[in-house]
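Late entry, written up from scratch paper. The run itself happened at the end of the previous shift, but nothing got recorded in the book at the time, so transcribing now.
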Amino acid sequence: LRLLPAQRASLQATIDTRIVEIEEAERALSNTSIFTPLTGRVTTTSVSEGQFVGVGDALTAIESTNASEVVAEFQTRVLGNLFATLETNIAREDLIGLDASDASVLLKRFNLKAQVRMKSGDRFFFWPAEFLRFDGSADPTTGTVGLVVRIANPSVPDPERAGPPLSNGSFVAVRLSLPEPVDALRVPRSALHVDEDSTFVYTVDAQSRLAHQPVETGSIQDDMVVVLSGLSEGDQIILSDPRPAVIGMLLNPIAESAGATR
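Output as recorded:
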């Protein structure tokens, strides 16, 4: 009986402490606001109504709807051909101050454009994109290099471009292009031949005889191949496969000039 007053006082002190803690929690709750740092779409939630949340706990996952990024995997050969094609239009003064370790600077200088394409049924839909950067490292399995492109407002309807919204996780293809003209010769892929040492084309010399001309090739554009060196505008090449191909034999060709592509 003598201990009851002391126990009662201890319990009352505990109650008073809990009341103060509740008041502090209510005051903190009144000063608490939850907002998203971006405009987006809620994909997952980690809490429910009435659940206690501590500092640093994840409440939800939100994907931005302002922009989406696509990592497009390209073979190093394709990227090498792209840079080789650009070299024909790069002046020495253009390289002054350029960080050689960051090739994306060079591509941005030439205003490289990107287009994202998605197939839905029998139709294709397109979104304009912007080249941002290289992904950083090559894939150790495929040897491909990732280029990151950005699509602005992919889920906003565009009256000038009908199509479904582009959601994260969709399978798409990326096409790169240069808006500025690049002076280069293009020839049909069927005109190219490969032997053990080089790539070459059959040409018609000034005496209308068959000749063998090694060439250096660049990027492939549909059924055409960019020729970086070995041919000049106006050269006559053999589009068919001459059989037998006897160098120096007399020809009666139907002329078609190799022209500069823009």
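DSSP finds three helices and 13 strands in the chain.
(Scratch paper discarded after transcription.)
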